[in-house]
Amino acid sequence: MARRVFFSFYYSEDAWRTSQVRNIGALEGNRPCTDNEWQRVLSGGDAAIRRWIDNELAGKSCTIVLIGSQTAYRPWVQYEIQESWRKKKALFGINIHGLYDQKSQPSLKGSNPFLGRGLADTYGRTCDWDIPVYDPSGWYSTDKYKNIADNIEHWIDDAIARRARWG
């Protein structure tokens, strides 16, 4: 069964790497935005970006943050995490630094984007430390991709179960 997910990532640095993950057949994610479409959204300013994100989150059960070297520091990624949590979406991250870009280059590992976001359960207990971030195994980019493809459905199911416990 295909899962409906929202992918959060730093577009200008990681679009190539993230497209590999977004093309895994077991997922129904937000349709990849072309460069022209994204530029059109950006030209509408912050309100247009917020509206686009909110529309893309609608109907999704899980947000997957694809973590590159600068992802944790991007304001729109932070907004997507906060909105996903507020809308009771499941959350988890996947480190993508080992996947190659269009020049067959990996990147540096990024920081955990969930820590310090103040995500709390219905009782006010902080949960950001309990949101999993997976670091795909393997030596080569193809090995890491295969590890993601083999496990992503399980990671989604696990994230949904965790979110249900937090309320």
List the helices and strands and how they pair.
Blueprint: E1 3-8, H1 11-22, E2 27-29, H2 35-43, H3 45-57, E3 62-67, H4 75-86, E4 90-95, E5 133-134, H5 141-166
Parallel strand pairs: 1-2, 1-3, 3-4, 4-5
What is the N-to-C order of secondary-structure elements (H for helix, E for strand)? EHEHHEHEEH
Number of helices: 5
- Per the CATH scheme, the topology name is Rossmann fold
Radius of gyration: 15 Å
Percent of residues in beta strands? 5-15%
Structure overview:
The protein has 167 residues and is α/β, with parallel strands linked by helices. The protein has a single domain (3-166), classed as Rossmann fold, CATH 3.40.50. 43% of the residues lie in helices and 14% in strands. It has a five-stranded parallel beta sheet.
